[in-house]
Amino acid sequence: MNQNVLTLPASGTSKIIYEHKIHAFPSHYLYKETPYVAFRERGGFVETIYTVRDRLVLMPPYNPTSADLTRFDLQTQERILTYIQDRKKGFGFEKPGQAYMFWILELETPLPHRPKVTPNTPGRQYFSYEDFNSRNQVITKNGSLSKTGVFEYDNFRDNLLLDKYNPILSSMRSMKTKHLRSENSEDALTWNVFQSLQQINPNHWYTELISKGINQTTFNLKKQVLPNQIPHNLTIKLWESIRPSLRGNQKAEGATEVDVMMESDAFVWFIEAKFKSDISTGTTHDQERNQILRNLDVGSYYAKGKDFYFSLLILDDAISSKGVSAVERYSRELTEKGQPFENRFSNVQGLTVFYWSDFVEIFKNCMQEVEDDFEQLIAARAFHWMTEKVDQLVKK
């Protein structure tokens, strides 16, 4: 049989889908009709193929009446009701103000070998029925596995959630686009997170991002940013090339590529994004000048009359231990009087460490709060992608 199987991410609801054989989603989502449907767990694993036996649309608060359920047998009615109860107690309904489509599922084929879909991208994916019955442990699409077992896309744009033909990407050097092909790409993660944020009204994420990124209390801050006052001219730029200040006895070095730069009339915020790596502890011309110090020097000089903040964005303290130690050290020196940094970096108001997992919360809250359908879709895709990404890497 050469039939298509629709696969959907269900990392947060797979358990109750399997238990009740019910799946629900906002009714405006449109999927290509296929004979079969399967659900991807965390990590992209699939354990069952279903058919959709019936459908039901319910309006919020999703409390079906007898009339809504009358065409179903008593067992199916019970499945629908208990699914709704369990979902409300657990994952919840991401968009509680919208109508939801409920699929009543019927078991088609169990997959005891639990094949893994790679890449496990957000949103819908389609595979042939034979893919799942081939007994292959890994089902790949649009790419291949490297010798070390890391998936690499044939085209780096397939690793991006949105804005795949932005001019910035076309002007990148070939080595950077090559790195973008990897499922472990630091740059792809940075692009997907911050380009997604820029498509969503900042009223839904600015306060939380400032709270987690700048105003958190891991290290002392000289000055906080007022989180509820969103600047009208706030900009986010990726991979800006900033020339060094070459102050004092500093040795010559090239421009610094800033992973993320957020700027307003009042402040400049540099973010150094690390994924499965630590900071560089030296530069070509100065082996004692690490990435944190370089960002402080370049950023504070660039900010001039504005307050300057620096954050290290990481997956885990243990993976980026040198970077965390450097932030802790420099933060202490900036906030204690008599330290050598006090005058040199007088406009540096804070150094912090925050985490990729923070964006799982940020996008989940956006997904639940935004009213615009397009923004809701962007937030949902980013949430599911980040959930999978952070979960997979923490387990490795």
Briefly say what this structure is.
The protein is of the alpha/beta class and 396 residues long.
- CA-CA gap between termini: 36 Å
Q: Indicate the proportion of strand residues.
A: 15-25%
The assigned structural class equals: alpha/beta
What is the averaged pLDDT score?
A: 87
Helical fraction:
25-40%
What is the C-alpha radius of gyration, as a whole number of Å? 24 Å
Q: Give the low-confidence spans.
A: none
> Biggest sheet: strands side by side, in what order?
2-5-4-3-1-7
* Tally of alpha and pi helices: 13
Task: Please give a structural write-up.
Helix 7 (186-197) packs antiparallel against helix 13 (373-395). This protein has helices spanning 14-20, 66-69, 74-89, 129-133, 167-170, 174-180, 186-197, 206-213, 291-303, 321-335, 341-344, 357-369, 373-395, and strands spanning 4-9, 22-26, 36-40, 48-58, 100-110, 116-118, 125-128, 138-140, 143-145, 151-153, 235-242, 256-263, 267-273, 307-314, 348-355. The two termini are 36 Å apart. With 396 residues, it is α/β, with parallel strands linked by helices. The longest helix has 23 residues, at 373-395. It has a 6-stranded mixed β-sheet. Strands 11-12-13-14-15 form a 5-stranded mixed β-sheet, sandwiched between helices. The model has no long low-confidence stretch (mean pLDDT 87).
